[in-house]
Design brief:
The complex is a heterodimer of chains A (87) and B (515). Chain A has 87 residues and is α+β, with helices and mostly antiparallel strands. Chain A has one domain: Ribosomal Protein S5, domain 2 (2-Layer Sandwich), CATH 3.30.230.10. Chain A is 39% helix and 28% strand. A 4-stranded mixed beta sheet of chain A has the order 1-2-4-3, covered by helices on one side. In chain A, strand 3, helix 1 and strand 4 form a beta-alpha-beta unit. In chain A, helix 1 crosses helix 2. The longest helix of chain A is centred in the middle third of the chain and has 18 residues. Chain A starts with 6 loop residues before the first strand and ends with a helix. With 515 residues, chain B is α/β, with parallel strands linked by helices. Chain B folds into 2 domains: 158 residues, Glutaconate Coenzyme A-transferase (3-Layer(aba) Sandwich); 237 residues, Glutaconate Coenzyme A-transferase (3-Layer(aba) Sandwich). In chain B, the strands form 8 sheets. An 8-stranded mixed beta sheet of chain B has the order 19-18-17-16-20-23-27-28, sandwiched between helices. In chain B, strands 5-15-13-10-6-7-8 form a 7-stranded parallel beta sheet, sandwiched between helices. In chain B, helix 5 packs parallel to helix 6 and helix 7 packs across helix 8. Classes of the chains: A alpha+beta (87), B alpha/beta (515). The interface between A and B is medium-sized, with 15 and 13 residues.
């Protein structure tokens, strides 16, 4: 999947997250979270997994997390990616 | 360091004082320790003249406040309080240092005190805190030893003289020049003065601070002239509109409503919901939703309750006026409707913190409670509850009456969502123990109800009614399956605070969080 423009998904509500995607030459993932100390490792693992599954090799992906569960992280990233890759 | 019975490491001394580790809820019997009531000097006042000395500065000077002394204030104006901030500013301006604060609580508005902690004006907190002061203490950013006490525990520590208050500066919303006052009327009316009543009896000097000096006599009397030394006048004690916190609204959240419905099932199954029922809830959205169910059941079945207790809200006032309770015991008013009621309803009884929950007397009101709804920041698989620190390890909340009520009520019910912002609320171990599990009856989450072993009949009745009863460990496992396992927060070895149980033993400590 190729990132050709900016894409956003999610909300700033508790237990949700915002995902910001934009084109870039390399793949860069930035995570900010209210539970970074407790769950930073699991959030990163899930984000990496979703990016790999979608074949994303380049793009700047930014997560602003408010304690979302894994399925919400997956859904929000997928949506942001689709919005950023659609013509 | 010694381990208490819950496995927490407790220092033998803290800030120069010795403490006993927690053992069990009934381990400390005051008679065997020869605990005494604190005494204070008898005084004689020949004069009938006004006790008004001027403003705060004049009152501080007249009180004889010196370096190293302990002062107190009450928190009935909660986040609308101005007195404590103004007082510390004046104390600083007079060059007085090394003051211990033994307020009944400290709120977010008191973040203004932080520069005075840094400056050495305030060097210890003999009370729990809400908000930034605790946060900075647990990050190691400010140094100020803190002993967190419950409402009943604080009353005990003042009455026994463990925390001797040199000068109590008591906000007095309706006060005369000879020192009689109440909290019912005036621009800063806050209703019950339950916490202040203890300080007025036991502090060495009592200063009534008012923004509403009325003609003698200020009736009805809350605190009487014969125990008030000084009267001071100020422009404003604060803003009573800020007594109500954002949490005192009925929840609309479907998960909260589900929890409330299960909690109501627990109360209904307890066998206590009949004539003579007594009940306490907090101000949280879920608690109020539970109160709504209780009211509906009492109406339908024409039940006349005995009393409602605690911090009192307008919701309880409505129940009183509808005749659903014989009376209300009010240690603090949680909203302006309660403030308005206590000055008008003879059955809306002002109650001192000692009467409410001091464990060392001939019986506190909490002992007469049937069911109580309590919240939790975390609970562990042994039902130990944390309300003081967040899962991040930061000390952000005071105990309130949590452990007092859990200990007193026949059925204490913890209502808590199973997950908050990915954090599992049922843990292997809580960050900080506020309330020991053996005093907790039931945990209600939206995923199910866990009943502690000492209530087997309630558990059987809930199962009979097809309530979603689960073992607390099963609840724990279900929640972790959804959230994943959190990494433990790391702490240093530096103990910056103690969590005191209501009997004065130490149930846990607060350590600084590793950055």
């Amino acid at each position: 999947m190729e990132i050709i423009k900016k894409g956003v998904a999610g909300t700033m509500q508790s237990s949700d997250l915002m995902v910001f995607v934009e084109p870039a030459d390399t793949l860069r993932l930035e995570i900010e979270s209210t539970v970074i100390k407790q769950f930073g490792h699991l959030i990163r693992a899930k984000a990496d997994e979703v990016l790999a599954k979608n074949g994303v090799t380049a793009g700047f992906i930014r997560l602003t997390d408010r304690g979302a569960l894994d399925y919400a992280i997956e859904a929000r990233i997928e949506t942001a990616l689709q919005r950023a890759s659609a013509a | 360091m010694a381990k208490n019975s819950l496995g927490r490491e407790i220092p033998e001394t803290f800030n120069g004082k010795r403490y006993m580790p927690y053992k069990d809820p009934h381990a400390i019997v005051p008679e065997t320790f020869h605990f005494q009531r604190a005494s204070r000097m008898l005084k004689r006042n020949y004069s009938g003249a006004s006790k008004v000395v001027g403003g705060l500065r004049e009152a501080i000077i007249a009180s004889g406040l010196k370096d190293g002394m302990t002062i107190s204030t009450h928190h009935h104006l909660r986040n609308g309080d101005r007195l404590l901030n103004d007082l510390v500013k004046e104390i600083d301006a007079l060059g007085i240092r090394d003051i211990r604060i033994a307020a009944s609580s400290v709120h977010i508005v008191h973040a203004e005190l932080i520069p005075y902690i840094k400056k050495g004006v305030i060097t210890a907190l003999e009370c729990g805190v809400n908000g930034p002061i605790g946060e900075q203490i647990s990050k190691g950013e400010i140094k100020c030893p803190i002993v967190v006490r419950s409402h009943g525990g604080r009353a005990r520590s003042v009455i026994s003289g463990e925390v001797p208050i040199d000068v109590a500066f008591l906000a007095a919303p309706f006060c005369d020049e000879y020192g009689n006052f109440n909290g019912f009327y005036g621009p800063s009316a806050c209703g019950s003065l339950g916490y202040a009543l203890v300080d007025a009896q036991y502090a060495r000097k009592v200063v009534a601070v008012t923004d509403n000096l009325v003609a003698f006599p200020a009736l009805p009397i809350g605190v009487p002239q014969n125990i008030v030394d000084i009267v001071a006048t100020v422009d404003s004690l604060g803003d009573p509109k800020k007594i109500v916190s954002s949490t005192t609204k009925l929840t609309k959240d479907p998960m909260g409503l589900q929890i409330a419905q299960y909690a109501a099932m627990v109360i209904d199954s307890s066998g206590y919901l009949k004539n003579g029922f007594s009940f306490q809830t907090g101000t949280g959205g879920i608690s109020l939703a539970v109160a709504g169910h209780v009211r509906d059941m009492m109406r339908e079945r024409k039940i006349k309750g005995s009393f409602g207790c605690g911090g009192i809200t307008g919701f309880f006032v409505d129940m009183l006026e509808e005749g659903l309770f014989e009376g209300l015991f009010d240690v603090q008013c949680f909203d302006l409707k309660a403030v308005e009621s206590i000055g008008r309803n003879r059955k809306h009884q002002e109650m001192s913190a000692g009467l409410y929950a001091n464990p060392f007397n001939m019986g506190a009101v909490v002992n007469r409670l049937d069911c109580a709804i309590l919240s939790a920041t975390e609970i562990d698989v042994n039902f130990n509850v944390n309300v003081n620190t967040e899962s991040s390890g930061l000390l952000l909340h005071n105990t309130g009456g949590h452990c007092d009520v859990a200990n007193g009520a026949k059925v204490s019910i913890i209502v808590c969502p199973s997950i908050r912002g990915r954090l599992p609320m049922v843990r292997d171990e809580v960050t900080t123990i506020t309330t020991p599990g053996e005093t907790v009856g039931v945990l209600v989450t939206e995923r199910g109800i866990a009943v502690n072993d000492h209530l087997p009949e309630l558990k059987a009745e809930l199962i009979r009614r097809r309530a979603p009863v689960k073992d607390i460990r099963q609840l724990h496992d279900e929640i972790y399956a959804v959230t994943g396992a959190p990494k433990a927060v790391e702490f240093t070895d530096e103990v910056v605070g103690l969590i005191e149980y209501l009997d004065g033993t130490i149930i846990d400590t607060v350590r600084t969080v590793r950055a």
